[in-house]
């Protein structure tokens, strides 16, 4: 699920094509009709559908439609890759939905913190480290258990664009790894924390 350019989707698909991730993208859903990520999916023959958030002022109705679009595909994992709206799990997708956030949660996150807003806040705060987070989703913004994180330095001459590029590089490493961990059934959640099981035995 996405809302924009779909570069994270493309990155994931490239890792799948290379045999580095044991997964198949069965459908792409966007909250914006003109998101280029939909075109990326269609070029690869992947079903792609828009559920425009602006057409559904009520969040419940919006999520009704999202769930209706997912239903035919028997989806095992939902990856929120730049999806800018709240996706309700509804008892079906708990611990089977993850979100990517361009900062080190719990810093610089929550409702209203997305895209360049995050990087601007990081730069204005004067912190020396930012990064990327993949976390399991719950029914709030950026509060679910953390699965993976990678720190990146904040340089003194950084702009929003240069910092964003560095964080995106980290995201491109984390997302395929997160999907593969799910494919290998190595993710466990207990007391609100994620444990990644060792695969050395298998």
Can you tag this structure with a few keywords?
Rossmann fold; two-stranded parallel ribbon; alpha/beta; 202 residues
What does this structure look like?
Helix 1 crosses helix 5 and helix 4 packs across helix 5 (160-183). The model has no long low-confidence stretch (mean pLDDT 95). The two termini are 31 Å apart. The chain is 32% helix and 19% strand. The strands form 3 sheets. The chain has a 4-stranded mixed β-sheet, covered by helices on one side. It has 5 helices and 8 strands; from the N terminus they run αβαβαββαββαββ. It has a single domain, classed as Rossmann fold (3-Layer(aba) Sandwich). It is an alpha/beta fold and 202 residues long. The longest helix is centred in the C-terminal third of the chain and has 24 residues, at 160-183. It is globular. The protein has helices at 7-17, 36-43, 59-70, 116-125, 160-183; strands at 28-30, 48-50, 78-80, 97-101, 129-136, 146-153, 187-190, 193-196.
Count all strands and give the number.
8
CATH architecture: 3-Layer(aba) Sandwich
CATH uppermost class: Alpha Beta
Helix count from the secondary structure assignment: 5
Low-confidence stretches: none
Could you say which overall geometry the principal axes of the C-alpha atoms support?
A: globular
The whole-angstrom Rg is 17 Å
